[in-house]
Amino acid sequence: MAGRVGDVVFMPSGRPAVVTESDRHSGKLVTTDDPAVVREKHRHGYINGLDVEQRNQFAAFLDRIKTIPEPEKRVEELQGRIKELSGDPSQHRLMKYLTAEMAHIMHTSGIRPKVYEIDVDKVS
Length: 124
What we know:
The protein is an alpha+beta fold. It is 44% helix and 13% strand. The chain has helices spanning 35-41, 52-65, 71-85, 92-109, and strands at residues 8-10, 16-23, 28-32. The protein has a 3-stranded antiparallel β-sheet with strand order 1-2-3. Helix 3 runs antiparallel to helix 4 (92-109). The termini are far apart. The model has no long low-confidence stretch (mean pLDDT 88).
């Protein structure tokens, strides 16, 4: 089983656990199912596939923008961060998670995009 440190896995009992160590060669994972650890590590949802640094960036950024009461301002902050990351291919996964968070905020708040970006080749 492939898993990164910090990913969520589900135990046979159905309880979530957090990967604390991962051995890629043997496929063995060391996990903890301590509810406090799971709650702390995944306070912004079950985010899998990010390395530790990207996971920390994601959590810190969402911690900051969730203090902003207006959803429109949160969306603007997310759009700015996504635009910053768009030029760096190594940040693609982080950018996808931020895009999904922005879509969630827009959908639940009824916010519509002000600017639509369309590839010229797709316009008929």
